[in-house]
Amino acid sequence: MHKFLSVVVFAFLVLFASGCGNKAYVQGKVHYPDGSPVSAGRVRFTAGDKSYSCKIASDGSYRIGSYRDGDGIPPGTYKISITGAYVFMDPPPGEPYPVSVQLVAKKYTDPGTSGIVCDTTASKNFDIAVEKPGPDDYPVYGPDNP
Question: CB burial class (10 A; 0-12, 13-18, 19+) of residue 138?
């Protein structure tokens, strides 16, 4: 009985350890070409039908995870996008609602157009440089521009 229990415990430990070791830990900073940080949003790593995301901290740092920020993701090659990267500004005079200001160019919001790829076969630091939005990225709609 003691030998059987030892074998079961050993098998459990081997299975548990093999499942825990199959993750890549990726962290870095999302920044503009001048080095200033993107201060909000989420970094999304996408491979096929699998997608993992994490919050971008106010200093631009991120740490990707599969179940929670920082717990690692399966090794692979991922296309990267930046989502939800906007901040709210005070409303203009006479307007009741705050205005959202986008922080990154529109091409970075889609993994198919961002042009950013990360190979996570090993844990690494991976900084992501993005451009600020241009005038045609997010048109402003209103009475003069329907």
Answer: middle
